[in-house]
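[agent] plan:
  1. take the single chain provided in the ticket
  2. run structure prediction with default settings
  3. attach structure tokens to the ticket
  4. add a short note for the reviewer (M.T.)
[agent] executing step 1
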Amino acid sequence: MTVCEPVSRVGTLERCYLSGTFAELCRIESPSGRERACAERVIAELRALGVSVHEDGAGELTGSDCGNLLARIPARQRSVSGALEAAGGPPLLLCAHLDTVPLQAPVEPVLRDGGWENANEGVLGADNKAAVAVMLALARHICHEGAPVDVELLFTVGEETALAGARAFDASRLHSSFGYVFDHASPIGEVVLCSPTHFRVEASFRGAAAHAGIRPEEGRSAILAAARAIASMPLGRLDERTSVNVGTISGGTAMNVVPDRCSLLAEVRALEDERAEALVAEIVDRVHAAANLPECDCDVDASVARTFSGYRVPASSPAVRVAEAALRSCGHESVRIASGGASDANALLAQGFPTVNLANGTERNHEPGERVGVRALEEMLDVALALLDETAALSPDAAL
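[agent] step 2 finished; step 3 output follows
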């Protein structure tokens, strides 16, 4: 993906700070709902730089022990005398999330073959602490060296639980015209222009309990009904733009009891709203059909929720143009992609705030083999700094 080797904006001390901060953040457990310790580390880093941080009330709304954090750093540039003085320029937002998926094991970051991994069999937390570390390193850099534009830094909670924190955030508080999240686990250079609409489908089956060895014919198995429903569903990647998954199933009380209760939780993702809605309707139909089979004969309740909406960002938008210019200046070929995943960009765009999701160079997110290269972290910081320069170069009209 790298097409040339431009001079890095990242100095040796900043590289050390970036890697060290990333490892420290990964050691702080922050699964969705328990982001407070990680948030306090971020707050302490920013306040040590003289940057004030505001926490909103998203914690109460999302069930987290912490709200979203918003910090602002004003533009300053060096004068002829070498002093930092106030500067003008369109403000820019950068966003990352503090939470991780549930941990399968304690996190102990280790360096292997030029990349960070978890020494234990569990996720590393590079999703999204790589971006959090980059934003802190960026803040440190611009507080010491200045920046051509005002910078807003947003750290959200509950991203891994259907973008809960970003959905609870009031985007009208932002001064920026557009912004970026670094939350796509793919090679740096990829620019996400499309992301899917997402539906959550939950079904609860109710049958009749009976002794499994003495009176099994008097029972009606809710697990059997759920199994028949799942077996009849279109699952997996249906095409390059659509996927369906049953993520959890639970039910029953004991091995020797015909189970009278069972529930399943499924999701539908599709780049086209109509396709997503049609698949949801099909899944609900399959659930009811399975419950009504003679061998099942169960009652069922199905609920559907649109958790977030998909989007398409025009390639001609200022945010995309700035991103691609920044990537080129850092020696990366920009690649426009559609993603099957979502990010805080979905939630911010739903509020009318232009946002682009950029690849962060991490690998195998949500898996025990998750890793991120030291070089990828440094390149991400280079791109973030380049975004400031390219935003400053925009004409006032182009930023609207």
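[agent] step 4 note for reviewer: The first strand starts at residue 53 and ends at 55.
[agent] ticket updated
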